[in-house]
Design goal:
121 residues; 7 helices; two-stranded antiparallel ribbon; 60% helix
């Protein structure tokens, strides 16, 4: 599965407010931001590039308001802390920014690839 597919699928898992939770990765059908990525991957996502993509979509203000207790560090910790300190709509907005950034990155790489005509001449 490509990073964009994982991002979109994880966001879809928490799109409904009753499918999103705080302080725990999974609670029945509900997931936190990390738990949604876990569920898509079928495994822990702490070291997966998608977790870093979501963490990089956090603004400095969003990172600053994170509680300093209860979670581990790194990208997974940043995402978990933000999830726990935020409202549902804010978490979805971070996924939306991460998806938009990933789309922009993919567009840059696609435009940088040589055309097939040039590659075969």
């Amino acid at each position: 599965m490509k990073n964009m597919e994982i991002l979109k699928a994880a966001r879809a898992k928490i799109e409904k407010p009753n499918h999103w939770c705080k302080y725990i990765r999974h609670d029945g059908e509900a997931h936190c931001a990390l738990g949604a990525i876990d569920a898509v991957l079928g495994d822990m996502c702490d070291d997966h590039p998608v977790t870093a993509i979501v963490a990089s979509a956090l603004t400095p203000a969003e990172r600053a308001r994170q509680p300093s207790f209860g979670c581990y560090g790194g990208d997974a910790g940043a995402v978990a802390k933000f999830n726990n300190a935020s409202e549902h709509s804010e978490v979805l907005a971070v996924f939306d920014r991460a998806i938009a950034r990933q789309a922009a990155i993919e567009a840059i790489f696609e435009s940088a690839e040589p055309s097939r005509e040039l590659a075969h001449s």
